[in-house]
Amino acid sequence: MSDNIFTIKAYNSLTTDVLECIESLNSCMPEYELYYEDEVQADADVFFAAWDGSRLIGFLSFIYVPGCDEAEITALVAPDMRSRGVFGLLLNEARRSAALLNISHFYYAPVHTSDNTPDTASNPSPAYSHSEYLLKLDCNNYPAGNSDNDSGSALYVGLPVPLQEQLAAASLFFHEDEEEESVFCCITDSEDNILSSCFLDDENSYICIWGVETDAHHRRKGLALLLMQCIIAAALTNSNDNNMPAPVFMLQVSGRNTAALNLYKKCGFLTESRIDYYSLHS
């Protein structure tokens, strides 16, 4: 409506009072998680708020990854202020800021309604973009035997024979990373060169795997598979030796990374949840 006058403000970071308003707004739809981290390093604004006087009636943010030409947005408008152009005003401001960061494309995860269908009212002709997966491996269901082979040869099953021989002297190392508050895990060759690595976070009820990376010169050789198998075997050995419950591993992976998705499923990871993302058209 043309007589609606709202104030749109853009932010590079959020103050405590604004954060409180955002949390209050988000409480009207607790099943939807707005992104409003208060510490962001960006060359442009990534948070956008619509105010009606001192009342926050809408919020939009996008998740900025340096060097990427697309970004995920989260947005929410107060229920009594919907269909009044608030979202459009926020989106226009966000696009202007995104252009400064060379971001040309937004995608989003629509809110699901009570019948579990996506609400695409704000974007009536959505185009599917990609899916993000939360994967889980309960080691109670992991094939027995992998953790009991002292030579580790069972871990190389499925790898090319020359690579099995090359990795016969490979070692698995765990290192406490105080800066990341994580455990750095890596496979090295006989010359102590890191071949493949990742980080492990103990979340009490499960172990989170993240930051999986393989040396550029050793990719497509099955090293990431070996890393996962070694980690799982080491965790099983530790739980067996200390009469502890079998570990549970969880990780997130994009459906765009088909190689990684197939790798984790080959290791026995199952889909715990999936989020479908859609393109937000101009």
UniProtKB/TrEMBL annotation:
Domain N-acetyltransferase residue range list: 6-140, 137-282
Protein name as it appears in the record: N-acetyltransferase domain-containing protein
PROSITE patterns documented for this protein: GNAT (PS51186)
InterPro entries: Acyl_CoA_acyltransferase, GNAT_dom, YpeA/RimI_acetyltransf
Keyword terms: Acyltransferase, Transferase
Keyword Transferase set for record: yes
GO molecular function ontology, one term from the record: acyltransferase activity, transferring groups other than amino-acyl groups
Superkingdom of the source species: Bacteria
